[in-house]
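Data availability excerpt. The first of two example chains:
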Amino acid sequence: MCLLVLWDKLEYEGTYLMRVGEELQPMTPDRLKQIFAEDHQDWFSQPARLDASPDDVIALLDTQTYFELLKVPYPTTRDAVLERLQSQDLIKQTNQGWTITNLAAIVLAKKLDAFSLALARKAPRVVIYEGINKLQTRDDKMGNRGYAVSFEKLVSFVHSAAPQNRFIEEAVRQEVKMFPMQALRELIANALVHQDFLETGTSVMIEMYSDRIEISNPGIPPIPVNRFIDENRSRNEQLADLMRRLGICEEKGSGIDKVVSAAEVFQLPAPDFRVDDIRTTTVLFAYQIFDDMSKSDRIRACYQHCCLQHISNRKMSNQTLRERFRLSESKTATVSLIIGATKEAGLIKTDDSESNSNRYARYLPFWA
């Protein structure tokens, strides 16, 4: 047996272990990357372009949009523009000229491929399919601009490409897209901000099918997927802070709450958060009638509704869940079965401070 000591970690037969309490547990790929990157310069501070002239900086970065998003008047001189960018650590002055950082390029680039192929590969890609699988592609677009300067157009394009939500359209007598603009905005922003920039040759993917949209980003999240609603931890704090100041995201953990709430308002199945070995994916489904929802769909909706109620300082009951599914009181027993299945899955629990009667029972997320 051979154990390789790595700081306070161990390597055994190709698996890196870390101590958690009294036990040794395998480290996640993200944790390994953090350890091996400790001696390396932060990715966002690394140079995207060295020795740039003042004219190069203005030509490469969309400074006009930058000041518009900040809601600050555009400076009257070029030097004042450069000074503002430098004060935000977006560019750095050296004896040879200006260094444009990766952070400035990924957020403000007029053309990412003007910097490097590696940065261009970080642009989001939108693929729209004709049906429920990848057999026939209707549209395939790869971005090439910085995240902040292209964000509104990206969200608008995805939203406009979505099919109509016919159920909602008939009910309110107006044109309503299948996927709510607010939900798309939050999910796309999350994918851009929380991706793993150390992953090479991959980017944020937005894939739209006739019955769902899948938005994914490289990297494994630092928190479990069933805590997305109530917790917030950013992998990329510098990017998250800049995108917040530019009005792209809020950086206060409310994004997923808004997505779940929008799904309920638009009468959609609960969004599904998935993680595989290298990517995190959120699936937003098209409208389904209750009878067509699978058992897992109903359990997921019950759990997310319970979380949403809890963070709103309310508690889930049979009645609130019936209202979420748009079911009548005659379906009380059916909803009770869903609640029971969600409890068996370990996702919710009965609030012991309330009535023990099933009729008046209130429920909490398992973590509350």
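And the second chain:
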Amino acid sequence: MHIDIITCLPRLLESPFSDSILKRAQQKELVTVSIIDLREYANNKHRTTDDYAFGGGAGMVMMIEPIDRCITELKSKRQYDDIIYMSPDGEMLTQTIANELSLKKNLILLCGHYKGVDERVREHLITREISIGNYVLSGGELAAAVVADAVIRLLPGVLNDETSALTDSFQDGLVAPPVYTRPAEYKGWKVPEVLLSGHEAKIAQWKYEKSLERTKNRRPDLLRNS
């Protein structure tokens, strides 16, 4: 998989991709993540990528020209399955969407900033808009890192135990059950006996029941939506 992330603040994305699972995925050559500095596509010596909004109003707007120039150059090198704009009014990121995107080959993630992008970018240059929640961030960089993380960890070979991703929260429409590790007893707090029994069927049933119970108590919206 190849992911290009377009941003006017590339340093914001250095850390998420330089450690842990995302770093190892790149080292294994399972994914290539390129951080594209949008200012390299500005057409003035000040490398300006934003301007005042027509019609007035507070805040600056990211200009269409640098974005169009950047996307056009990237598309000349490879064919993209989706060009995604990180937007607060996009479709909400879910595990289902992450699963879908993990099957793609090439993606562009466009990070907004300031008051967003010129509307013509959304009308003519992108194919999809994704939000990570009902709140506003200073820019789309953190949101893009969240999307990339959710997608990359699903790629075959990224996780040491590939079945781990299949048991994550939301994969089956439920949140994950409680998990425990050694010691089996600590300060009188004990691990449920069924998890120590070695009886796979009983353990699987216990996990399902706990997932369902936890989902009902903490995320009943998931059950309503399903």
